[in-house]
Design the sequence.
């Protein structure tokens, strides 16, 4: 990793529930908390705890020099609002098979 840039991934004892407009999209007691320099803290939830039936695969992909290549899914009226790293870099290998949500309520 680059000097000054830091990423940590740790289990959280918090029960994480992800909703959008009142609909539960995911709920987990096994979420991981990813903290990254210059970015908001993000919860990554195991794919098994996500309502993937509500997601539509997107053609969008991005590259992060610290985490790897991300793939995306969309929600109705929320394109590319869910992502995952299918083959994350070694430093963040724990987020493999986990999904993360953007612009949703986490409780």
Sequence:
């Amino acid at each position: 990793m680059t000097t000054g840039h830091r990423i940590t991934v740790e289990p959280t004892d918090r029960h994480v529930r992800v909703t959008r407009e009142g609909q539960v999209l995911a709920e987990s007691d096994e979420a991981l908390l990813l903290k990254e320099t210059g970015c908001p803290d993000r919860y990554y939830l195991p794919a098994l705890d996500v309502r993937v039936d509500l997601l539509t695969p997107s053609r969008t992909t991005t590259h992060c020099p610290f985490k790897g290549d991300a793939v995306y899914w969309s929600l109705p009226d929320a394109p590319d609002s869910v992502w995952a790293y299918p083959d994350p870099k070694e430093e963040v290998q724990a987020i493999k098979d986990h999904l993360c949500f953007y612009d949703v309520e986490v409780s």
Summary: The two ends are 31 Å apart (CA to CA).
